[in-house]
Amino acid sequence: MKRLIKVFANLTVAVLACMACFCLTACEDLRTVEITFEVYNTAENVVEEKTLSVTMYRHLAPETVDAITGYAKNGYYEGAVIYQNTSYSSQLMLGSIVSKEGKLTFNEVKPEIKGEFKRGGTVGSDLTNVKGAVGLWRTWTVNEGGYKTNGSTATGRAEWFMPTSSISSYNGEFCVFAKIDLDDETNSDTFTEITTYAGGSNRTSYTVYYTGEYDETKVNENFGLTGHIVKTSDYEEPEDLFTAEGNQYVEYNKKTINVPTYEKANVTNFGVVVKSVKVK
């Protein structure tokens, strides 16, 4: 009888151990997205293909990851250019601006996504904003006192930001839904090359601005504003330039971005462009 009890106890321990292993595996719901970039090699004067593998944590931010991977499968990020906002130079931006017929234009406006991070009510997605992290960019407001503040936690859409160094002030303020394994040699080489290019001398300054009247009812149409992207050297301030006031979003104020570029046959080409995205 004692032997039978011992056998039963051992079986129970084994079953519980298996269940624990299964739970740990099942709880980590991961998605892998592989991005192929066309990157201009300044030394060799050729365009090369570089890949970057991104691991997305669906168990931490399911709505965000489902939306992003859905957009990726439908080709949303193809043609997107890597750029830096001069106000946030320690991060790369990807998604909202694309290259079409040799010109920069805005990508399609996507619906806002629930804020899956601490301030948005979800603790599990609060990965830190370190080099290699991938977060969902969201908009900012200017309050009645004229101070810039984080806007609604549900103002992220489809644009990624990727810190090139740690940004501790972002922790708990954005949904970090993915990471790039920089211990992987291919990832490390690609990320280093893109970061170096984005911050180097081979880039062009563009001014992004909006015109028109802000309409709260048109949230998924950039609030009814009309966006423009022109070389900063060609910018002329229009009479109906939008400037945020009250609780309007400063994201639509005039801003300057730097885009990696190179000249070929007297034509400006974009140095880091997404060729394809595969969800695995």
Bin the strand percentage. Answer: 25-35%
Order of helices and strands: HEEHEEEEEEEEEHEEEEE
Biggest sheet features: 7 strands, antiparallel
Q: What class would the helix/strand composition place it in?
A: alpha+beta
Overall pLDDT, averaged?
90
What is the number of helical segments per DSSP (H or I, 4+ residues)?
A: 3
Order of adjacent strands in the largest pleated sheet? 4-10-7-11-2-1-16
How far do the termini sit from each other?
52 Å
Please provide the count of β strands: 16
Which value, in Å, is the CA radius of gyration? 22 Å
Low-confidence stretches: 4-9, 11-26
Instruction: Identify the overall geometry.
Output: globular
Approximately how much helix is present in the residues?
10-25%
Jot down its keywords.
280 residues; alpha+beta; seven-stranded antiparallel sheet; five-stranded antiparallel sheet; 3 helices; 16 strands; 19% helix; globular
Provide a descriptive summary of the structure in words.
Helices cover 19% and strands 34% of the residues. The protein is α+β, with helices and mostly antiparallel strands. The longest helix has 26 residues.
List strands and helices in order, with pairings.
Elements: H1 2-27, E1 30-41, E2 46-57, H2 62-73, E3 84-85, E4 91-94, E5 97-100, E6 103-106, E7 133-136, E8 140-142, E9 148-150, E10 160-163, E11 175-180, H3 185-199, E12 203-211, E13 226-231, E14 255-264, E15 267-270, E16 272-279
Antiparallel strand pairs: 1-2, 1-16, 2-11, 3-14, 4-10, 5-6, 7-10, 7-11, 8-9, 12-13, 12-14, 14-15
Short structural summary:
The protein is α+β, with helices and mostly antiparallel strands. It contains three helices and 16 strands.
